[in-house]
Amino acid sequence: MNTTSGLQAPARPGPVPAGDRLLAGGQGDLEGKMFRISHMGYVDPVDTIGLLAAVEFTLAESGVKVEIGKGVATAARVLREWA
């Protein structure tokens, strides 16, 4: 079963960089307004941290001002406290 979640972009990002299997841009009327995250099956905390890194890179490459690593570091702290 394939599953995709859509997120509204904080700004109008450019195209999602080619070759990323996890992230894709919006389609049709949503092109340039959102991006999609592909996920399937079990997702563990390490998968989530990798996904956050991919989102940070994609947003930065699309022209959105992002502090690379900030989301990953925050997620790692939350997961450490949660575990």
What does the largest sheet look like?
3 strands, antiparallel
Number of distinct beta strands: 3
What is the CATH top level name?
Answer: Alpha Beta
CATH superfamily: Aspartate Aminotransferase, domain 1
Q: H/E order of the elements?
A: EEEHH
Distance between the termini: 28 Å
Number of domains: 1
Q: Give the % helix.
A: 25-40%
Report mean pLDDT, rounded to a whole number. 78
Strand content: 15-25%
Q: Structural class per helix/strand content?
A: alpha+beta
What is the CATH third-level topology name? Answer: Aspartate Aminotransferase, domain 1
Q: What ranges have pLDDT less than 50 throughout 5 or more consecutive residues?
A: none
Radius of gyration: 13 Å
Could you characterize the architecture of this molecule?
This protein is α+β, with helices and mostly antiparallel strands. It has a single domain (3-82), classed as Aspartate Aminotransferase, domain 1. It has helices spanning 45-61, 70-82, and strands at residues 3-8, 23-25, 34-39. The chain has a 3-stranded antiparallel sheet with strand order 1-3-2, with helices on one face. Helix 1 packs antiparallel against helix 2 (70-82). It is globular and about 40 Å long. The model has no long low-confidence stretch (mean pLDDT 78).
Please sum up the structure shown.
The protein has 83 residues and is α+β, with helices and mostly antiparallel strands. 36% of the residues lie in helices and 18% in strands.
